[in-house]
Every structure is written in structure tokens, then in C-alpha cells.
């Protein structure tokens, strides 16, 4: 059968293009990115939609589904302010397109603005000439909580206050791009912009290539090199300082750390000592040369700034004074975001550069000046009123973020006017501007939505600002672009800068001769080791609990408790789950088998239930996402989701099916760790956690089902629980017998489920970890592992007693404590390593 002729294909494409775009209508009186002021489509947008129409309706729908699936599988997420649950990343299927000519203006304007703010910060924390010369009122600066007095006179490393700057832009009614906000504290969105690009460029690979979209990799390469230049030694250690897993943008921070090769640290991971900042690692303290902070400045040092901060590093500012660490952006840079400064930026730019601002600021009047205050009050009906300072509590209580005075009640407007008269310095008035809209795909058609574009400028290796060719675009579901914050209904979009010529294919890969080969990634931070250790323990604990539940479900289905011996075994299984915290211990005998199984699986109020352990695994994994592969993270999330989705009363066969599926997920996690993780310290701590937990659990199961009081049914259950039935049956023709079972469960070094196997692996792993003192003496973890290994290796099955098994269990728990005490360094007095072996 012949395919469509070129003419017919072209006609079909033209029809799809018309169907796609003909109904699109910009909002009255609002500029639009697709439809120009002359009412005609802009050329680069028309080119995009023409190529999109060429794919066909089914293909477009499939690609849209691919975008959504990739985001889910990669676990791209965020949190809205005040929330504790991650949301899936809301990526628009349509990019924001900007022509090469328009981008040149934006690029020049953002670069200029970054240079102005660099000069502004140097002046505010230096000579203060802008204030003394009358370009800036002192109160517009000192009224801001972000102006930090301890930083006055403190010059940052290399004299650079800003390593990265961002401007939030919108196109005004006159077609010109306007600056809505400046971001100099700790600009967010870079990692999400990169994720947006990866997803859109994969979904529309041919369109992306044919439109010559400018690449992002060179910008990140320059940014990384620029941060490295702030250090005073080659191959510096660069840390990304995160507020932690509860940050709204923690996913982005972990992603950037992994992408750029930085060490992700929290405040507790850093210690200031001897005029330097160090990272706490399993091998002791290791110098941190550059810190890219993602916490607000006033949290950075509880000794000199906000005393209650749990995010900062005591003594950090004194280290900065000595010039021994570079912090990007400089502590105190957040004052540049103060809305009170916006009305003075044009004059400051003239004073600093002798130039007019290429990108004007949205008209702003600070009400701390009499003339400006009266101007705002006289036109209050037509003004947007916002807090002048981020720390202004009274303005925040009255306004929240920003309000249009003409859109509130007469009573609210009167209260606002009174507040401005009484404390005018706390408020700014701003011109209300209807910003442009961009096409968004909604219910299989294009609709206009307002947006804000964040554009980034970073200092490159040459010491000059480089602008990222694209940005972070937020699209509102409401027709009010001033309120575009990441929350319910807001989407993001990739930003494509369409070039006239093919762009160079670049990556983050440096020249081969510029990189010294290494097989170890550096030192593993203690916090990361701690989390990997507990991730291993939680995963193993979840597996043991699921095996107990599965064993109970099978017995319930097969009516194994009809006989006295079977009933006793079933009761022991229930007791173990009660002792492990899977169900309330006091009600273990009152629940029906179905009720008991559902409680052990889904009771979120019990720390040892299957769903609670899956949640704990995901929570722990979230703290070290930069160290886990996307596949590993996805399976951990899937495991938690399986048990979350199953939280309804299930019957015994359904419970059995769910446990089998969950155990397959656990096996996949273990398999990925074995096959994909490098054999360095991070993998070893994950393994140590798993082996310790498996050893302790197996000892407990052996004491319950394998000692003197055990019957044949108990031994059979024990082999089930340690997944050794097939091995036992193939080795012994006779049925279960006490000594062979005990040997296989406790002493057999060839059985990967035996206690002896776990101890042997533990001794191997611990022997390769760093030591702090090279004095020939064994450290506590090594000594305990060797002692237990020797006891098990020399023991025979006929001499095993419950007391011996209990002693092994307790020594394993002591080994866990010794590992934590030695490697998960705590406090400011963490010791240094004298010898390092097996670094992370």
C-alpha cells in the first residue's frame, strides 16, 4: 500500500497547524509572545508550531505523555512554601520561545544589572559613598534585615560579592522587557531550568535541533570554573550548602550537586576551626575551599548572626574575614533584593557605570520619603503596594506579598493608607502593569497565560558575568503575573533561544589532558555515610517485616493454624511482628488474621509496619538523592507508593500478592546497589547497614524459631524467613532437623542469608574504612567485627544455645553503635585522620 503523497502530507500538516493555532486569542489589552502587537504570529513561534504540526496529533500526544512519565520516573519534585509533602514537577508541554535579536537585549540588560549590583554591594559594605553622596537614603538600606552589620568592611575572597545573580522579567504593554525583582541572596531555579531543558529537548529532539536552540551546558561549565577560581589551590573542594531535605527546592540542590560534581552539605556537615572551614567526613575533617550557599545569609553563622540558626556554621564569618574560604554569594548579598532599593536603581546605574539601565525596573516609590509617600497615597487606587523590606513584620501581616489597592475593600484600603502614613518606610508603591502571556497547552488547545521569566548571570573563569541562554519560566493559572510563585496551578516552561545558525554541541566535559585521573571521588561526608547506613538498615528491616507478613498470609490461606503445632508457630510469628513494632503489641491476640495482616502492612502509627519502614527508607534516601541513581530512587519511591496505595482492607491472597510485589522492589534495590554502585565508602556504609540489620534480625528469628523449644513447623518457617528453603532441600534429603538448620542459619559462610556470612562481609567492609590513629591498635568497630567473626567461625551447630545467639545479637548491636560513634562524627571536636584507606 502506497503512503501519502508529499502534497497530501503537506496539506494534512497545514490543516493541523490551522487547527492548532486558529482559535488562539490573546487577552484584550495584554501583550502576547505568540501574537505580536500587529496581530500577526511571530516568526519563531510560527516555525515551532509548523514543525509541531508536522508530527501528527497522535505523535504529539505520545510525546506529551513521555514528558509526564519521565518527570515521574526521575522523581523531579518541589514543595510549595509551608508544605511537607513533595509535589511532582509541573512542566508545561510548550516552551517559551525568544528570538535571537530579543535575547541579545535581555542578555546585555541582565549583565549590566549584575554589574550594578556587584558595585552596589561593594559600596554598601565598603565605603558607603552612594549614601554619603545622596544617591541612596541610609534608611532604605539599614531598614532591611538583610543588611548585615558584621559584614561591613569584610571583603570576600577575590573581592567578588556576586557569583550568581538572577532577574525576574516580564514584557510590559510597550513590548519592552521589565525587571520585576532582583535575586542576589541565593537564586533558585537553575537546576529546574536544566531539568526542563532535558525533558523538552528529549521529547522534541528534532524540533529542538532544527530550531538551533542555544545550549545550556557552556553556562554551567563556566559557572563551575568561576567558583573554582575563587579558591586558592588547584582541584578545590566546592560545597553546595543546602538547608536540608525539608527545603522547598531540595531536589534541585541535590540535582545540581550531582550534575556539577559538588559536595552537598548541610550546616552540621561543616565546622570552622583554625581559621579554615572543614567538611566532616568519615576520614576526619577535610578543607572546604568554596561554599555555594542556598541558605539565607542571616542563618549562616549563629555566633554573629541569627543565634537560633540550626542551618549555619559557627565561626564561618570569622573564617571569611581571614580570607580562608569563599562563599557564593557573599554573606549579606541579600540586601540587593530589598524592594525599597528599586526606585533608586536608575540613578545608581548612572553613578556606577555612567549608563542608563537597558532593562528598566517596574516603576517603584519607596514610602520612606515624604514626596514619594504622598505620591503613592494620592494614587493609591491605582497602585500595587508591597513590603519594602523582607523582615517588615507589620507590612507582611497587612499585605502578605503584594496587593493592588484598587482591588481590596474600602475598609482594607483605608487601613492600608493609615499604615503607610504611620510607617511609610515599611512600604513601596509600584505601578500596576499587565505583563505578557505565552501559549500553554490546556485541554488539547492553546490558551494564553501570564508568566515571569527568571534569567541568570554567573561569573565565569574570566571574572566576567555570563548569561544563561534561557531561564526559569513560571506560568500562572491566574491572570495575575505578580503572583507567580510555585504553588497549586503554577507551571514551568523550558526557555528556547532560537538561533539563526546551528549551535555548537557542547557538554560539561573538560579537555582530557586537563583532568587528573582518579578512581575515588574524595571523602564521604559523615552525614551521607550516616544516611546510607540507615538506608541499608531500613530497606533490610522492611524486607524482614514483609517476609514475616508473607509467611503469616500463606499460613492463613492454607489454614496452617488448625493444628496445635501450627497455631503455636502462627502465634510466634504474630509475637515477632508485635515485638518489632509492626502492630500494637497489646492487641496481637485480639485481631483476626485479616485485621492483623492489614495492620502490619498499613498501620502508619506503628514505626515497624511495612508502610512506615518504606516511608522511612524514602525519607532517608531523599536526604542523599545526589548519591543515588535515578533508577534506585525510582524503585524506593515505587516501594513506598505500593504500600501507600494498598492502604485499604485487603484479604489474605491480596496481602500475599502485595508482599511478593514489594519484595521484588526490595530485591531490585539490592541488585542495583550490587551492580551499579562503585565499591567505595558510600557503598560500604550502605552494605554495613544492610548486613548489620540482617544479622540482628536473623539472630532474633533463630532465637524464636530455631532453639530448643522449636518444632518442625518452626524450623520450616525459619528457613522461609531467611529465604533458604531451596538450598536446604537440595543439601539435605531428610526433612528439617535442628542442627543442620542452625548451621545454615547461623554458621554457614556460604549462605548469603546466614549470620556468619553477614559478619564476614562486615569485617571486610570495616577493615577498608579510614582509620584515625595509625598506632597499630584496632579501632572499636574493627575489633568487635573480628571477635564475633572468630566466635562464629569456630562454633559448631551442636553447641549453639539461645544464650550464644543472644550474645551475638547484642554484639552486633554494639557494633552498630561503634560504627555510628566512630564514623558519624558529631560536635566541633571531630578528630582528624592520620591515615586514609578506601576513601569515598
Automatic annotation (TrEMBL):
Q: Which Gene3D superfamilies match?
A: 3.30.1490.270, 3.40.50.11290
Task: Indicate the segments forming the Circularly permuted ATP-grasp type domain, all copies.
Answer: 95-475
Which SUPFAM superfamilies did the record assign? Glutathione synthetase ATP-binding domain-like
Q: Name one Pfam family in it.
A: Alpha-E
Q: Where is the DUF403 domain?
A: 524-824
Q: Which InterPro entries match?
A: ATP-dep_Glu-Cys_Ligase-2, CP_ATPgrasp_2, DUF403
Name of protein = Circularly permuted type 2 ATP-grasp protein
Q: Upper lineage ranks?
A: Bacteria, Pseudomonadati, Pseudomonadota, Alphaproteobacteria, Hyphomicrobiales
